[in-house]
Structure formats: C-alpha cells, structure tokens
Amino acid sequence: MATKLVKAPTIKQDAQNTAKLPSSFAHDAIFMSNFRKLFGPETQGLVADLINAGQEHLFDDWEQAGSSDDVMKKYLAVQLKRLNKTYPGGLVAYINRAKVLLAEARDGVNPFMGCTPSVPEGVNLKFGDADFERYEQLGLSAANETVYVLVAGGLGERLGFSGIKVALPVESTTCITYLQTYCDAIKALQDKSNALKGESRKCQLAIMTSGDTHARTKALLEENGFFSLEPEQVVLMMQEKVACLADNDARLALDIEDIDDDPSTVVMTKPHGHGDVHQLIAQTGLAKQWVAGGFKWLVFFQDTNALAFRALPSAIGVSIDRSFDVNSMTVPRKAKEAIGAITKLTKEDGSSMVINVEYNQLDPMLRATTYPKGDVNDSTGYSPFPGNINQLVMKLGPYCETLERTGGQIAEFVNPKYTDDTKTKFKKPTRLECMMQDYPKAVPNANVGFTSMAGWAAYSPVKNNIADAAKKAASGNPAHGAFSGELDMYACNVRMFNEVDGVSVDGPHNIKLQTAGNVRVQIPARVVYDAAFASTLGDLKAKLGKVKVCKGSTLILQGEGIELKNLFLNGSLKIKACPGAKVVVDGLRVKNHMYKWSGVESIKRGEDVPEITAIRGFTVAPFDGPVLEFSRPGEYVVTELP
User: What is its EC number (predicted)?
Assistant: First the structure.
C-alpha cells in the first residue's frame, strides 16, 4: 500500500506533464523515451512548460536515453531548475516578461512617454557651512540605527586587477582595502553614535556578492577577522544570474562555446543587475529582522567609492530632517555629462515619481516638454538636475512594507544590441536587467528627494582601466580610475583639514603618469586618517589645532584618541594610538625626507609590475618615516620625536 501511495502521484504527474506537451513532442517516441527515463516529475513539468513557452530548441535532436549525451541533458535540467527557482515566478514568467520588453525595444516604445520632467525636492549642501554641520550631527546621532548594504558583485578584471574589487587598496600609503575602509567606517560611526546616546547597539552590514565574488569576499573577511566588525554583524547575500535571450522571441541562448569548459552551464547566463539587492533582502527576511532589531535607516553604497562615508552622515541627517522615504545622494553634474540625473516625472494624470533618468534620455525629454533648450547649465554652472551616484538612504520601516508587497522585485528593462536597423537580429545575446536606483518606481506615493554635495567630498569611484581613465582625464572629465581614486582621497582629506581654523596644508605638486595619455596629475600631500580618528568634519574640528603640513609631506593618523594641538610637518610622520590611549601632539616639529612619486616607465616597456601598481600608473616608495605608536591605554603628550 505504501509503495502505491508513493508511485501514484508520479504516474498522475507523468500523465499531466505529457498532456502539457505539444503533439509534435508528445507523439515523438524518441523524445518521450528520454523525457520519462531521464527526468522526474518536477523536471518533466518544467520542460513541458518551457516547450509551450517557445523553448523547444533547447530539446532538439535528443537521442535515446543511455547515450553519451545524457549527462549534458541532466546538466541542462539542473541548470533550468536553478534558473526557474531563483527568478520570482519562474523561468516562464521571465520569458513572458522578456517577450513584452523585447517587443517594446524593437518598436522604440518610450518608457517616459507622457511624462513631464522637473527638478525634484532636495537639499544642496555646501561642505562645511552651518547647515552641513547641523545635518552631519543629526545623521551621526542616527548612525547606530542604520543598516549598511554594500553592492559588491564585481571583479576587477575591467581595471586590470584579477581579484575582487573590494580587495583593491584605496591608496598606496597604508594599502588598506576598500572592504576594510567600509567596515572601519561603519564601526566608527556606530561607536560615536552610541557614545552620543549612551547606547551599545551594533550596526549591521549586508554585502551582495555574485558567484564570481562570493567565496573570495567571504575569505577576505574571515582572513582578516572581519576587520573592525564582529562576524555576527556581517551577512553575505549571493546574487544568481539570469538566462540570456537569443532573439526577439525570447528564445533562451545556448552557451555552446563554453560547454567544454563548464558543462554545468548549457544556457548562457549573465548578471541581472544590482537591483537584485532588494529581492535578496526580501528573500532572506533581513528587512524584518532589522526592523525588529530597532533599526530605522538603510544605506546602499557601491564597492569602490572610498569617499562614500565622508558625505553619508549629513545625507542621513537630511533624510531625518525632510522625512525622506528615499534620499538619493548626488553630486552636481554638468549639462549633458555622462551620468544619470535625479528627475521628477509627472504623468498626465497628475501622479509623479522621482527617479534616475539616464543622461542620453534626459536631454531629448527636456526638449520635447518644458525645457526647449534641453539639458543646459544654470547660473551655478551646473545642470539643475543633480547627478546620480547610486548611493541611497531609505527609511527602513516603509522599505520593509514595500518588500512585503513586491517581494523586492524591481522594474526590469532590456537593452539588445541589434545587427542593423531592422532590429530583427542581435549582435550577441541579451538579458533582462534591473537597477537598484529604480526602487522609487515601486513606491510612487513615497516622499523621495535628494542630497547634493560637491563631488570632491562624496564621489570618486574606481571603474575605468588606466588607459580609459587617462583619456577621460586628458579631456577634462573625471577619470574614475585607480589613480584618481587614490589621489582624490588625499585631496578630500586635505580639503577637510583646511576647513578647520588654524590648519594649513599646502597645495599639490604635479607628476606625469606613464600611461596611454601621459597625463599630468596633481599629487596632494598624503594626509591619511582612519575613521576612528575622524568620521565627520566635527571630529576634525575637535582634534585639530594649529597644524601646518608642507607640500609633499605624508601624515598618517590611526586611532580615536589622537589630538594635534600644535604640529609642524615638512616630511613624514605616522601616529598610531590603541583604544584608550589619549595622545596630544603639542609643539612637535618634524622635518625629514619626502617620498618620491614617479610614473611607472616599465609599464610602457611592457615589463611585469604588480597589478595594484600597474592599474595606477605611478609608484611611490613605501613609508619608512618615524612612527609614534602608543600600544597601551593612558595619556601621552608629544613635544618632540624620540
């Protein structure tokens, strides 16, 4: 009896799945032989659904069961089930959605048809003024009630770096990685916020990885003891890929060329886009856990923008003050600059949403509606539409409610590259994509705004290889390469120091990078400090007195308890203080050697150099100057070098 009870559903399912198949397949004895001998009911049902959805090409030319192709067929079945499981609604839902979007792309449907653009509500911050400091302090008070989400699914191959991007060093003075920089910043904000309020809350960091980066991100954290965070504060969420589409009929593309290298991948797949971060947070139940833990705010940030946390406290403060459900951190953008713009779109029925519009869509939209001159600079010298940097601050409660309603699904798009104007064939397979910053489409009635801040204080991503970055720099545009990411960090630190009364850090000097463009770059004084020393401008004002740093100098500060009451530096100095050590520098004068910067001639000669040097195009001697290290708690006054 027990055996019959187990087998009966299978027989019934077989019959149901056979009934689902088109007659051309159901009457094919060879196909049906394979269909029943190789696969169980779940796979049979999926195969039948896919064939009915126009995917019969996946199963063409199947031989008899027991042939050498059986392993490949099973690989295909496993992959199809995985793709079916990881996409909300399954593979057929993906295919049906793709058919609609591909038809709209072929027909040139404008997704913003009927929308009138305007500048949304937002706050333009001037770094260092009274409003900035007020917002910064307000944001700092809420920093321990904030969850931080890092979108880190990328490898550094595009940059010429073989590792994961978060393992890149931010700068070559301390060689601290991006991941450590972020962990340290979160820990420092947490501790300072807790101290303000007499609390002991532990912030959370969620990291979205991919199949390419998951294991290496996990290993980087574990090998370094999770840096300044504790293991229970960090969670990894791995993003799955989606199937590629071969044509306008949304036929899944077979990855024939790579089957020998990776037989488990028969259908070609690619990333679905960083919009999947919302779906992963929904699927893992993290948003509910965070709300239950008393967290109120959620910050999304990118993998290689070391300046992200310089501007973050003030942006959180703006969100609190304006009660923004979604707050896009932005930078001023020049008209027609190749960066998306945060824009308010009002439909004919009066409804509206505030969302990122790509720069190549913005200008024609403006010309066709209320801005006949298109995207032009105003009296400030910039476009009134601020530039999107994919860094978001959200109210956690409403966000959690939205995930409950939507499952974290974000509006998708498709961007096929056609072989010609007939738009009937693709140059290469495409796929559906989604973007993290399109979240406001799911909350049309939410209070959405922006916070804009000067790019030097908020945005210098590393996303271009050295040749492309050099070309951009030569044309007067932001380079967004490894060399600019490093130099912009120094420049930001110098400008922040110079915002403090009594502090003077000399300007930069020039060197020529040995790159495709031989670009001249400005080398600021190497002022490097960790987040424990200062997370905000307010921290710097409390810790810096009369400080003079000469051109070409190197100053490294590591530790919360350091105060520079009176310092003259013409050379190099490092101060490191352990927790509990209070170090006051008062009357110290340092004059010693500088460090020589130079372009890397060996790159031009085709010689092998370390990747982290090659992607920058310059080198500088390792720090070997005096180090004042205080490894025991206590109070210390430094007036001269030992």
Answer: 2.7.7.64
* Backbone conformation region of residue 364, classed left if phi is above 0, alpha if psi is from -120 to 50, else beta: alpha
Write down the pLDDT at residue 257.
Answer: 64
Among 433, 485, 386, residue whose Cα is nearest residue 244? 433
Residues 527, 493: contact at Cβ < 8 Å?
yes
Crossing angle (nearest 10°) for helices 308-322 and 130-142: 90
Q: At CA 403, angle to CA 217 and CA 213, rounded to 5?
A: 15
Residue 89: how many other CB atoms lie within 10 Å = 12
pTM for the model stands at 0.91
- At CA 49, angle to CA 47 and CA 54, rounded to 5? 95
Lowest-confidence segment of 74-88, 387-401, 411-425, 513-527 by average pLDDT: 513-527
8 Å CB contact between 311 and 329: yes
Residue percentage of the chain with pLDDT more than 90: 73
Q: What percent of the chain has pLDDT over 70?
A: 89
Q: E strands along 350-437, which residues?
A: 352-357, 387-395, 412-414, 432-434
| Structural domains of the chain, ranges and CATH numbers in brackets | 23-86 (no CATH), 113-457 (3.90.550.10), 468-638 (2.160.10.30)
For residue 140, list its beta bridge partners.
none
Give the chain's mean pLDDT.
Answer: 89
Q: What is the pLDDT of residue 622?
A: 82
CB 333 within 8 A of CB 144: no
Mean pLDDT highest for which of 55-69, 290-304, 468-482?
Answer: 290-304
Instruction: State the sign of the Cα–Cα–Cα–Cα dihedral 503, 584, 587, 621.
Output: negative
Write the pLDDT tens digit of every residue in 331-359.
999 998 889 999 999 999 999 999 999 98
Angstrom CA distances, 555 to 223, 544, 564, stand at 28, 13, 11
Instruction: Identify the band that residue 517 occupies on the pLDDT scale cut at 50, 70 and 90.
Output: low
Residue at token pair 């077979």: 254
pLDDT of res. 370? 85
Query: Torsion angle, CA of 362/365/366/368, rounded to 10 degrees?
Result: 160
In three-state secondary structure terms, 162 is coil
Q: What are phi and psi of 314, to 5 degrees?
A: -65, -35
- Report the DSSP beta bridge partners of residue 18: none
Q: How far apart are CA 482 and CA 613, in angstroms?
A: 9
Query: How do residues 139-180 score in pLDDT, each as one tens digit?
Result: 999 999 999 999 987 899 889 999 999 999 999 999 999 999
Query: How confident is the model at residue 476, as a pLDDT?
Result: 80
Nearest in space to 182 (alpha carbons), one of 303, 285, 299: 303
DSSP 563-621: EEEEEEEESEEEEEE-TTEEEEEEEEEEE-----EEE-HHHHTT----HHHHTTTEEEP
What 3-state class would DSSP assign to 182?
A: helix
CA-CA distance, 356 to 342, in Å (whole number)? 4
User: Taking Cα atoms as reference points, which of 568, 505, 521, 140 lies closest to residue 315?
Assistant: 140
DSSP conformation letters of 27-62:
T-HHHHHHHHHH--HHHHHHHHHHHHTT-GGGGTT-
pLDDT at position 44 is 82
